[in-house]
Amino acid sequence: MDISVTTIKVEESVQRVPSGIPRVAFLADTFHEVNGAARTCRELTAFANRQGYPFFSVRFAQQESFTQQGAFWTMELTRSPISVGVDPDLRFDLTFYRLRERLEQRLREFAPDVIHVIGPGELGILGAIAAWRLHVPLVVSWHTNVHEYAARRLPFAVPGMRRGVQEFVLRQILRLYERGAAVLAPSPELVGLLYGRTGKPAYLMTRGVDSAAFSPQHRRRTDNTFVIGYIGRLMPEKGVRFFARLESYLESAGVREFRIFIAGWGSQERWLRRHLRHAEFEGILDPEALGRAYANMDLFVFPSRTDTFGNVVQEALASSVAALVTNGGGPQTIVEHGVTGLVASNDDELCEYVLRLMRESQERLAMGAAGRERMLGRSWDDVFQKVYQAYRTCLPRGTDAGA
User: Fold this and answer.
1) What's the pLDDT at 85?
2) Mean pLDDT score, 194-221
3) What superfamily would CATH give domain 3-208+379-393?
4) pLDDT per residue as tens digits for the range 228-277
Protein backbone atom coordinates (compact mmCIF):
# COMPACT_ATOMS: atom_id res chain seq x y z
CA MET A 1 0.00 0.00 0.00
CA ASP A 2 1.23 3.50 -0.82
CA ILE A 3 2.43 5.18 2.38
CA SER A 4 1.57 8.67 1.20
CA VAL A 5 -2.05 7.63 0.62
CA THR A 6 -2.18 5.95 4.02
CA THR A 7 -0.84 9.08 5.71
CA ILE A 8 -3.51 11.26 4.13
CA LYS A 9 -6.24 8.93 5.33
CA VAL A 10 -4.78 8.86 8.82
CA GLU A 11 -4.60 12.65 9.06
CA GLU A 12 -8.26 12.90 8.05
CA SER A 13 -9.26 10.31 10.65
CA VAL A 14 -7.34 12.13 13.39
CA GLN A 15 -9.64 15.13 13.07
CA ARG A 16 -12.64 12.97 14.00
CA VAL A 17 -11.06 11.64 17.21
CA PRO A 18 -12.37 13.21 20.48
CA SER A 19 -10.38 16.27 21.46
CA GLY A 20 -9.56 15.09 25.02
CA ILE A 21 -5.85 14.83 25.83
CA PRO A 22 -4.71 11.21 26.39
CA ARG A 23 -2.86 10.25 29.54
CA VAL A 24 0.59 9.22 28.30
CA ALA A 25 3.19 7.12 30.10
CA PHE A 26 6.52 7.74 28.37
CA LEU A 27 9.29 5.24 29.13
CA ALA A 28 12.69 6.41 27.84
CA ASP A 29 15.83 4.26 28.02
CA THR A 30 17.99 7.30 27.27
CA PHE A 31 17.14 10.69 28.72
CA HIS A 32 20.00 12.44 30.51
CA GLU A 33 22.69 11.30 28.06
CA VAL A 34 24.16 13.44 25.28
CA ASN A 35 22.63 12.09 22.06
CA GLY A 36 19.82 12.89 19.65
CA ALA A 37 17.40 10.33 21.07
CA ALA A 38 17.82 11.67 24.61
CA ARG A 39 17.34 15.22 23.34
CA THR A 40 14.05 14.28 21.69
CA CYS A 41 12.89 12.51 24.87
CA ARG A 42 13.66 15.58 26.97
CA GLU A 43 11.87 17.85 24.50
CA LEU A 44 8.72 15.67 24.47
CA THR A 45 8.66 15.59 28.27
CA ALA A 46 9.15 19.37 28.47
CA PHE A 47 6.38 19.91 25.90
CA ALA A 48 3.87 17.85 27.89
CA ASN A 49 4.82 19.68 31.08
CA ARG A 50 4.47 23.09 29.40
CA GLN A 51 1.08 22.20 28.03
CA GLY A 52 -0.17 20.84 31.36
CA TYR A 53 -0.92 17.44 29.79
CA PRO A 54 -1.30 14.32 31.98
CA PHE A 55 2.10 12.70 31.49
CA PHE A 56 4.21 10.11 33.31
CA SER A 57 7.93 10.31 32.47
CA VAL A 58 9.93 7.20 33.41
CA ARG A 59 13.67 7.16 32.82
CA PHE A 60 17.03 6.13 34.26
CA ALA A 61 19.17 8.46 36.37
CA GLN A 62 21.99 8.41 38.93
CA GLN A 63 19.55 8.32 41.87
CA GLU A 64 16.03 6.92 42.25
CA SER A 65 13.16 9.33 42.78
CA PHE A 66 9.45 9.81 42.28
CA THR A 67 7.62 13.14 42.04
CA GLN A 68 4.05 14.08 41.29
CA GLN A 69 3.07 17.63 40.35
CA GLY A 70 -0.59 17.57 39.49
CA ALA A 71 -1.03 15.47 36.34
CA PHE A 72 2.72 15.44 35.62
CA TRP A 73 4.54 12.47 37.16
CA THR A 74 8.24 11.62 37.08
CA MET A 75 9.91 8.36 38.06
CA GLU A 76 13.68 7.93 37.89
CA LEU A 77 15.20 4.47 38.23
CA THR A 78 18.80 3.29 38.52
CA ARG A 79 20.64 0.60 36.63
CA SER A 80 22.35 -2.14 38.62
CA PRO A 81 26.12 -2.79 38.64
CA ILE A 82 25.37 -5.78 36.42
CA SER A 83 25.08 -3.66 33.28
CA VAL A 84 26.89 -3.80 29.96
CA GLY A 85 28.02 -0.80 27.93
CA VAL A 86 26.32 -0.15 24.60
CA ASP A 87 27.85 3.33 24.18
CA PRO A 88 30.38 5.32 26.22
CA ASP A 89 27.61 6.85 28.36
CA LEU A 90 24.79 4.31 27.92
CA ARG A 91 24.40 0.87 29.49
CA PHE A 92 21.95 -2.04 29.44
CA ASP A 93 20.96 -3.48 32.82
CA LEU A 94 20.95 -7.28 32.67
CA THR A 95 18.78 -7.38 35.81
CA PHE A 96 16.13 -4.95 34.51
CA TYR A 97 13.25 -7.36 35.12
CA ARG A 98 13.56 -6.67 38.87
CA LEU A 99 11.93 -3.28 38.14
CA ARG A 100 8.74 -4.71 36.63
CA GLU A 101 6.45 -4.89 39.67
CA ARG A 102 7.37 -1.44 40.98
CA LEU A 103 6.95 0.12 37.54
CA GLU A 104 3.62 -1.57 36.89
CA GLN A 105 2.28 -0.44 40.26
CA ARG A 106 3.01 3.19 39.39
CA LEU A 107 1.51 2.72 35.94
CA ARG A 108 -1.71 1.36 37.46
CA GLU A 109 -1.89 4.42 39.71
CA PHE A 110 -1.36 6.77 36.78
CA ALA A 111 -3.85 4.85 34.57
CA PRO A 112 -2.42 5.75 31.14
CA ASP A 113 -4.43 5.75 27.94
CA VAL A 114 -1.21 5.09 25.98
CA ILE A 115 2.24 3.73 26.85
CA HIS A 116 5.02 5.09 24.64
CA VAL A 117 8.46 3.44 24.49
CA ILE A 118 11.47 4.37 22.37
CA GLY A 119 13.01 1.05 21.40
CA PRO A 120 14.21 -2.34 22.66
CA GLY A 121 16.01 -1.14 25.80
CA GLU A 122 15.14 -2.15 29.36
CA LEU A 123 12.18 0.25 29.68
CA GLY A 124 11.08 -0.54 26.14
CA ILE A 125 10.74 -4.22 27.02
CA LEU A 126 9.12 -3.52 30.41
CA GLY A 127 6.76 -1.02 28.78
CA ALA A 128 5.66 -3.57 26.19
CA ILE A 129 4.99 -6.13 28.94
CA ALA A 130 3.07 -3.57 31.00
CA ALA A 131 0.98 -2.49 28.01
CA TRP A 132 0.00 -6.12 27.42
CA ARG A 133 -0.74 -6.82 31.09
CA LEU A 134 -2.69 -3.57 31.61
CA HIS A 135 -4.50 -3.74 28.24
CA VAL A 136 -3.16 -0.32 27.21
CA PRO A 137 -2.21 0.59 23.60
CA LEU A 138 1.54 0.61 22.99
CA VAL A 139 3.26 3.21 20.81
CA VAL A 140 6.87 2.56 19.78
CA SER A 141 9.07 5.26 18.28
CA TRP A 142 12.26 4.70 16.28
CA HIS A 143 15.27 6.78 17.30
CA THR A 144 18.44 4.90 16.39
CA ASN A 145 19.45 2.60 13.53
CA VAL A 146 20.78 0.02 15.95
CA HIS A 147 20.98 -2.66 13.26
CA GLU A 148 23.31 -0.51 11.14
CA TYR A 149 25.41 0.42 14.16
CA ALA A 150 25.81 -3.24 15.09
CA ALA A 151 27.02 -4.12 11.61
CA ARG A 152 29.47 -1.20 11.34
CA ARG A 153 31.03 -1.88 14.73
CA LEU A 154 32.01 -5.43 13.75
CA PRO A 155 35.81 -5.61 13.51
CA PHE A 156 37.28 -7.20 10.37
CA ALA A 157 33.88 -8.24 9.00
CA VAL A 158 33.41 -8.74 5.26
CA PRO A 159 30.47 -6.92 3.57
CA GLY A 160 28.36 -10.08 3.34
CA MET A 161 28.77 -10.74 7.04
CA ARG A 162 27.83 -7.15 7.89
CA ARG A 163 24.65 -7.41 5.82
CA GLY A 164 23.71 -10.66 7.55
CA VAL A 165 24.27 -9.19 11.01
CA GLN A 166 22.32 -6.07 10.07
CA GLU A 167 19.30 -8.06 8.90
CA PHE A 168 19.42 -10.37 11.95
CA VAL A 169 19.52 -7.43 14.39
CA LEU A 170 16.75 -5.64 12.49
CA ARG A 171 14.47 -8.68 12.73
CA GLN A 172 15.00 -8.86 16.49
CA ILE A 173 14.29 -5.15 16.94
CA LEU A 174 11.12 -5.32 14.86
CA ARG A 175 9.66 -7.88 17.28
CA LEU A 176 9.03 -4.96 19.65
CA TYR A 177 7.57 -2.69 16.96
CA GLU A 178 5.18 -5.46 15.87
CA ARG A 179 3.57 -5.18 19.31
CA GLY A 180 2.72 -1.51 18.83
CA ALA A 181 -0.73 -0.17 18.12
CA ALA A 182 1.21 2.48 16.19
CA VAL A 183 4.85 3.18 15.36
CA LEU A 184 6.64 6.50 14.89
CA ALA A 185 9.75 7.27 12.82
CA PRO A 186 11.71 10.43 11.98
CA SER A 187 11.95 10.07 8.19
CA PRO A 188 9.66 8.91 5.34
CA GLU A 189 12.16 6.14 4.55
CA LEU A 190 11.89 4.71 8.08
CA VAL A 191 8.12 5.18 8.14
CA GLY A 192 7.99 3.03 5.01
CA LEU A 193 10.33 0.43 6.50
CA LEU A 194 8.31 0.08 9.70
CA TYR A 195 4.97 0.01 7.90
CA GLY A 196 6.21 -2.55 5.40
CA ARG A 197 7.85 -4.85 7.94
CA THR A 198 5.27 -4.64 10.75
CA GLY A 199 1.98 -3.81 9.02
CA LYS A 200 1.25 -1.37 11.86
CA PRO A 201 0.06 2.24 11.35
CA ALA A 202 3.25 4.28 10.93
CA TYR A 203 3.48 8.03 11.47
CA LEU A 204 6.15 10.62 10.88
CA MET A 205 7.73 12.03 14.04
CA THR A 206 10.33 14.52 12.85
CA ARG A 207 12.46 16.74 15.08
CA GLY A 208 12.20 20.40 15.97
CA VAL A 209 14.88 23.02 16.44
CA ASP A 210 15.18 25.98 18.81
CA SER A 211 15.80 28.88 16.42
CA ALA A 212 16.70 31.22 19.29
CA ALA A 213 19.33 28.94 20.84
CA PHE A 214 20.74 28.22 17.38
CA SER A 215 21.02 31.52 15.54
CA PRO A 216 23.58 33.50 13.51
CA GLN A 217 23.30 36.19 16.17
CA HIS A 218 25.63 34.09 18.35
CA ARG A 219 28.56 34.44 15.92
CA ARG A 220 31.60 36.08 17.54
CA ARG A 221 34.51 35.15 15.24
CA THR A 222 36.54 37.88 13.58
CA ASP A 223 39.47 35.92 12.06
CA ASN A 224 39.69 34.79 8.42
CA THR A 225 40.44 31.11 8.99
CA PHE A 226 37.82 28.92 7.32
CA VAL A 227 36.09 26.75 9.94
CA ILE A 228 34.66 23.38 8.96
CA GLY A 229 32.49 22.07 11.78
CA TYR A 230 31.28 18.72 13.06
CA ILE A 231 29.20 18.16 16.20
CA GLY A 232 28.16 14.69 17.30
CA ARG A 233 29.37 11.42 18.72
CA LEU A 234 32.82 10.27 17.58
CA MET A 235 31.87 6.67 16.87
CA PRO A 236 32.60 4.35 13.89
CA GLU A 237 29.05 4.56 12.51
CA LYS A 238 29.34 8.35 12.23
CA GLY A 239 32.04 8.05 9.57
CA VAL A 240 34.24 10.64 11.31
CA ARG A 241 37.51 9.24 9.94
CA PHE A 242 36.43 11.00 6.76
CA PHE A 243 37.91 14.20 8.18
CA ALA A 244 41.45 12.83 7.76
CA ARG A 245 40.69 12.22 4.11
CA LEU A 246 39.18 15.68 3.78
CA GLU A 247 42.22 17.31 5.36
CA SER A 248 44.60 15.60 2.90
CA TYR A 249 42.33 16.52 -0.03
CA LEU A 250 42.26 20.21 0.91
CA GLU A 251 46.01 20.33 1.43
CA SER A 252 46.54 18.70 -1.98
CA ALA A 253 44.31 21.40 -3.48
CA GLY A 254 46.57 24.07 -2.00
CA VAL A 255 44.24 25.10 0.84
CA ARG A 256 46.10 25.98 4.04
CA GLU A 257 43.99 28.42 6.07
CA PHE A 258 41.32 26.14 7.50
CA ARG A 259 40.40 24.54 10.81
CA ILE A 260 38.25 21.48 11.53
CA PHE A 261 36.18 22.14 14.66
CA ILE A 262 35.04 18.91 16.36
CA ALA A 263 32.71 18.84 19.37
CA GLY A 264 31.63 15.50 20.83
CA TRP A 265 33.01 12.36 22.38
CA GLY A 266 33.51 8.72 21.51
CA SER A 267 35.92 5.92 20.71
CA GLN A 268 37.25 7.56 17.53
CA GLU A 269 38.65 10.66 19.24
CA ARG A 270 42.08 9.16 19.88
CA TRP A 271 42.42 8.11 16.23
CA LEU A 272 41.33 11.54 15.02
CA ARG A 273 43.79 13.32 17.30
CA ARG A 274 46.62 11.22 15.84
CA HIS A 275 45.66 11.74 12.19
CA LEU A 276 44.42 15.34 12.00
CA ARG A 277 46.74 18.34 11.94
CA HIS A 278 44.12 21.10 11.50
CA ALA A 279 41.61 19.90 14.11
CA GLU A 280 40.35 21.54 17.27
CA PHE A 281 38.65 19.21 19.78
CA GLU A 282 36.15 20.75 22.20
CA GLY A 283 34.47 17.73 23.81
CA ILE A 284 30.89 18.13 25.04
CA LEU A 285 29.66 21.73 25.08
CA ASP A 286 27.09 23.36 27.35
CA PRO A 287 23.99 24.79 25.58
CA GLU A 288 25.28 28.35 25.35
CA ALA A 289 28.69 27.31 24.02
CA LEU A 290 26.98 24.96 21.56
CA GLY A 291 24.98 27.79 20.03
CA ARG A 292 28.16 29.87 19.64
CA ALA A 293 30.03 26.93 18.14
CA TYR A 294 27.53 26.47 15.32
CA ALA A 295 27.33 30.20 14.58
CA ASN A 296 31.13 30.47 14.39
CA MET A 297 31.36 27.78 11.70
CA ASP A 298 31.63 28.58 8.00
CA LEU A 299 30.45 25.14 6.89
CA PHE A 300 28.93 22.12 8.65
CA VAL A 301 30.00 18.68 7.40
CA PHE A 302 28.22 15.52 8.59
CA PRO A 303 29.68 12.34 7.01
CA SER A 304 27.38 9.83 8.75
CA ARG A 305 25.38 7.40 6.60
CA THR A 306 23.49 5.76 9.50
CA ASP A 307 21.71 8.58 11.33
CA THR A 308 17.96 8.23 11.62
CA PHE A 309 17.45 11.98 11.43
CA GLY A 310 20.29 14.34 12.30
CA ASN A 311 19.27 16.98 14.85
CA VAL A 312 22.70 18.58 14.51
CA VAL A 313 22.09 19.31 10.83
CA GLN A 314 18.97 21.30 11.69
CA GLU A 315 20.88 23.16 14.41
CA ALA A 316 23.59 24.13 11.92
CA LEU A 317 21.04 25.32 9.37
CA ALA A 318 19.19 27.33 12.03
CA SER A 319 22.54 29.02 12.71
CA SER A 320 22.73 30.07 9.01
CA VAL A 321 25.48 27.56 8.28
CA ALA A 322 25.23 25.57 5.03
CA ALA A 323 25.33 21.80 5.62
CA LEU A 324 26.99 19.04 3.62
CA VAL A 325 25.65 15.52 4.22
CA THR A 326 25.66 12.09 2.57
CA ASN A 327 22.83 10.43 0.69
CA GLY A 328 22.51 7.78 3.42
CA GLY A 329 20.16 8.04 6.39
CA GLY A 330 17.95 10.85 7.62
CA PRO A 331 20.12 13.99 7.14
CA GLN A 332 19.54 13.89 3.38
CA THR A 333 15.84 14.59 4.05
CA ILE A 334 16.75 17.79 5.92
CA VAL A 335 19.15 19.36 3.41
CA GLU A 336 17.68 20.70 0.17
CA HIS A 337 20.40 19.99 -2.37
CA GLY A 338 21.64 23.20 -3.92
CA VAL A 339 19.40 25.33 -1.67
CA THR A 340 20.42 24.86 1.98
CA GLY A 341 23.48 22.70 1.36
CA LEU A 342 24.64 19.76 -0.72
CA VAL A 343 24.05 16.00 -0.56
CA ALA A 344 27.00 13.82 -1.60
CA SER A 345 26.82 10.28 -2.93
CA ASN A 346 30.31 9.31 -1.73
CA ASP A 347 33.35 10.61 0.16
CA ASP A 348 35.07 11.91 -2.97
CA GLU A 349 32.04 14.02 -3.83
CA LEU A 350 31.80 15.23 -0.24
CA CYS A 351 35.41 16.45 -0.42
CA GLU A 352 34.70 18.20 -3.73
CA TYR A 353 31.65 19.93 -2.27
CA VAL A 354 33.65 21.21 0.71
CA LEU A 355 36.25 22.75 -1.61
CA ARG A 356 33.54 24.22 -3.84
CA LEU A 357 31.80 26.01 -0.98
CA MET A 358 35.08 27.18 0.50
CA ARG A 359 35.79 28.93 -2.79
CA GLU A 360 32.23 30.05 -3.58
CA SER A 361 31.42 32.21 -0.56
CA GLN A 362 28.34 33.82 -2.10
CA GLU A 363 26.76 30.42 -2.78
CA ARG A 364 27.66 29.21 0.70
CA LEU A 365 26.19 32.27 2.42
CA ALA A 366 23.01 32.06 0.34
CA MET A 367 22.59 28.42 1.39
CA GLY A 368 23.09 29.36 5.03
CA ALA A 369 20.44 32.09 4.80
CA ALA A 370 18.00 29.69 3.12
CA GLY A 371 18.66 27.09 5.82
CA ARG A 372 17.87 29.60 8.55
CA GLU A 373 14.61 30.52 6.83
CA ARG A 374 13.54 26.87 6.53
CA MET A 375 14.33 26.08 10.17
CA LEU A 376 12.23 28.97 11.50
CA GLY A 377 9.16 26.86 10.68
CA ARG A 378 10.29 23.70 12.53
CA SER A 379 9.25 23.98 16.16
CA TRP A 380 9.24 21.14 18.68
CA ASP A 381 5.65 22.06 19.61
CA ASP A 382 4.46 21.35 16.05
CA VAL A 383 6.26 18.00 16.09
CA PHE A 384 4.66 16.86 19.35
CA GLN A 385 1.16 18.08 18.53
CA LYS A 386 1.30 15.59 15.64
CA VAL A 387 2.59 12.89 17.99
CA TYR A 388 -0.45 13.46 20.17
CA GLN A 389 -2.63 13.05 17.11
CA ALA A 390 -0.99 9.66 16.58
CA TYR A 391 -1.68 8.75 20.23
CA ARG A 392 -5.37 9.50 19.74
CA THR A 393 -5.64 7.12 16.78
CA CYS A 394 -4.64 4.26 19.13
CA LEU A 395 -7.63 4.78 21.42
CA PRO A 396 -10.83 2.75 21.02
CA ARG A 397 -13.51 4.59 19.05
CA GLY A 398 -15.67 6.70 21.27
CA THR A 399 -13.07 6.89 24.03
CA ASP A 400 -12.84 10.32 25.65
CA ALA A 401 -9.13 10.49 26.37
CA GLY A 402 -8.14 11.82 29.74
CA ALA A 403 -11.66 11.54 31.13
Assistant:
1) 76
2) 95
3) Glycogen Phosphorylase B; (3.40.50.2000)
4) 999 999 988 899 999 999 999 999 999 999 999 999 989 999 999 999 99
pLDDT value at 5 more than 50: no
Question: How confident is the model at residue 273, as a pLDDT?
Answer: 97
Same CATH fold assignment for domains 3-208+379-393 and 216-375? yes
Domain ranges of the chain: 3-208+379-393, 216-375
What is the share, in percent, of the chain residues with pLDDT greater than 90? 75
331/311 Cα distance (integer angstroms): 8
> Under CATH, which number does the domain 216-375 receive?
3.40.50.2000
Q: Is the pLDDT of residue 81 over 90?
A: yes
Confidence (pTM): 0.83
Question: What are 325's strand-pairing partners?
Answer: 302, 343
